[in-house]
Amino acid sequence: MANADSIIAIYDDYYTDGKVAAKREIASKQSVDHIDAIIQGQSFETILDIGAGEGAVLDKLNKKGLGKTLGAVEISTSGVEAIKTRKIANLASLDIFDGYHIPHPDKSFDLGLAIHVVEHVEHERMFLREAARVCKKLYIEVPLEHTRNLDKAIRMSGPYGHINFYTPLTFDNLLKTSGLRIERLMTFAHDLAYEQHLAGRTKGWVKYKLRSEFLRFAPKTAVRTLSYMAGALCSPR
What we know:
Shape: globular
Helix content: 40-55%
Number of strands: 7
CATH topology: Rossmann fold
Order of helices and strands: HHEHEHEEHEHHEHHHE
Strand order of the largest sheet: 3-2-1-4-5-7-6
CATH superfamily: Vaccinia Virus protein VP39
């Protein structure tokens, strides 16, 4: 597939950049906290991280004891090599994939994760339907960057490979039109560590307070004004 080949070429050396890895390491902790909040005590024996990057989420899932058996598929060879170096105890499978074909049988995992992946994917619904084929349930997380300041979001996120930009409503629509039933969808602000990583100690604290309080008191206006994240637990219809 030409499209798959072009995506592989873009991301093949993506995780050789230390800046990307450092950002994902901090972001992975907040993503695992989001998973905890959304699944609300549900347990999953087998978990597949789809687009696992350099393995930061897998590492934290393993340490937290979420999932007895973990699997991963990743598009970039640099990501796969980084995952191998982590020596994650519960990681039973690790495969390269082309972004649209997952090398596992139907419903072979209890939960699939697509964390900050869909915003990079050219054919989102094709990707999500394939994920739903392999997994009984999915947790999908995306940035909500389609705000009044969309032009800035495109400039800032372009270097990280974002090609799709979402609001809560367009994310909800994407999931439903991909044949998924939404069990729970939540909007999240960035945590303090992430804000301070990007903006520094003092400015990061101010941004954290502003973003989280804005979301708390005026959620509809907040998501039209500032960037947030959305996470959804879904099952195939």
